[in-house]
Amino acid sequence: MRVRDPRARLRGWGGVGAMAVGCVLALLLLVCLLPAFRPAARGLGAGDGGTGVAHGERARAEAACTDPERQTLAPSGADGPTIEEIRSRPKEKRKLIVGVDQNSYRWGYRDPNSGGTAELEGFDIDLVHRIAEEILGDRDAVLFKAIPTDQRIPAIQEGRVDMVVRTMTINCDRLRDVAFSAPYFRTGQQLLAPKSSTITGYDDTLAGKRICTAAGSTALSQLTADRAAGRLAASADLSVTVPSQLDCLVRLQLGEVDAVVTDGALAASQAAQDPTVALKGDAFTTEYYGVAMRRDADDLVRRVNKILVDFRADPDGWRTSYRTWLSATLGGGEEDMRKSEPPSPRYLRDS
């Protein structure tokens, strides 16, 4: 009987092992390459070379994000799959589903003095009605969903809303999770504290103070980063966070915190609700509100951007809404409006 050389068996198994490793590597390479060839699930490429180009530009812009307010798609009046999906809902449910606030005075709130109807009113609500009118032909074809600050992005990602119009700041971190329209309002982070407080602004007077912010807000991110970098006193206490921004005002009124940090536009509205508190110091950031939507809803992003262009150009649009809702808290003069109106929009193709 012939006896095989054991080294031959080992060489055979080595060949099999090498083949297995080669197959695994080939499979991994294929998996890595597939996204490059997979078409986008939704969206139109109207006006800029197609969806693939749009997503490619967006990905490159986000990778080197320095001006988040410019990372949006060019306006278009064309319909697409997202808009058609909204329009194809059963007649009794053919509404735009929008996440809003119901507690932000003059932005999105229920006025208790509105004759018993307590309908949602405010600057953001005016914009929602304008979008619904343009997309569905009926300004009242809206299903409002009140969502807390920390649920804005999950509500979009889980498909509970078509968009969020809720004083939502455009920033680089959020662009990884949702798509934004062009800016529709300019603001900045600012301090709110009791008038009698020794706090004078975003400075050393915050040492040892308890500061309230909303969970998931840009205020919390900014303060956390500033404290780590030494721009905010290390002893500043940032442990108090709340689901919705208005809860911070309640904590301040109860004496549970010493100050609130939020967007200056919201802080001014809160100061208007409580004469014992005031804005302290100037805004220490520049931020822009945008309409947030799903990342793959390119056609809806483009349509909203077209609506925003028209809203700002219309004499009965942006400026009328500002005068109606915000002039009492932010000032009604031309200079006041210029401070709040965002600059002319820039889109990905403009860069």
Describe the structure in your own words.
The protein is α/β, with parallel strands linked by helices. Helix content is 40%, strand content 16%. It is built from 13 helices and 15 strands. The chain has helices at 6-37, 51-63, 81-87, 123-136, 152-157, 172-175, 218-229, 246-253, 264-273, 298-313, 318-325, 327-330, 334-340; strands spanning 96-100, 103-104, 108-110, 120-121, 142-146, 163-164, 179-180, 185-187, 189-194, 210-214, 237-242, 259-263, 277-280, 287-289, 292-293. The strands form four sheets. Strands 5-1-6-15-7 form a five-stranded mixed β-sheet. A five-stranded mixed β-sheet has the order 11-10-12-9-13, with helices on both faces. A three-stranded antiparallel β-sheet has the order 2-3-4. Strand 2 and strand 3 (108-110) form a beta hairpin. Helix 4 (123-136) crosses helix 10 (298-313). The radius of gyration is 25 Å and the shape is globular. The N and C termini lie far apart (79 Å).
